[in-house]
Amino acid sequence: MIEKRQQQILETLSRQKTATVGELSNQLGVSAVTIRTDLNQLAKQGRVVRTHGGAHLAGERLRQENSYATRQQLFAEQKRQIGQLAASLIKPNESILLDASTTAVAVGHALKEMRETYNVTAVTTGIWTALELLGAPHINVVLCGGHVRDTTGSITGAITNEILARFHFSKAFLGAWGITIAKGLTDSPLMEVELKKLIVQNSQEIIAVVDSNKFGRIGLASFATTAQITRIITTQEAPAKNIKAFREAGIQVLTAQENA
User: Under a CB-based contact definition with an 8 Å cutoff, are residues 176 and 186 in contact?
Assistant: First the structure.
């Protein structure tokens, strides 16, 4: 119960950047004392910074640079649902790309359980994604070399780009810091942006795997235009107006069900 409540606090702060004890107390239906205790614990873990009467996400967590552990907990149930739906689109003998996003890790987790989807070659630019796929005899795992970013476990750099330039993927499952009609898929670290641009060029289908919090946000640079996106996989919590706009733009939007 405590862990779930603290996860809800992190999700709220991720959406609105800052919140007061009173706001969180009303939203979660618990006492102000309980909220203060939760915030103090999260502050000790380095996840939030206490302010007078409330808290905000710590440092770079206001941007894309959350630690892997923190990102994995945010919107975890949505990511599980997205992962299940995304994995169901993968066919036997396909060559796919999974990036370093925690949502791509969820796709890998679901794919690992789908033994009937045999002989899949999964190339990844994420250490955690590769580890998730280990032990699945029906998946050939290829982990790209390069520079490892300690905050995210993603692999980037000239070596990574050189390796990726040799491959062609039937489907690429990509997370993003933000997604909008005007800017498409965006991210903040420029090395990630350049890497994902290369992936987009070498993939037949670009599948954006994004939780509801990513809609309407714009990162530092775009790595895929709206026209380059084949489909978007999200959940029913995604803003209806955003889903409608993408569908009107000719993009297939799939929303995962809660019981997926």
Answer: yes
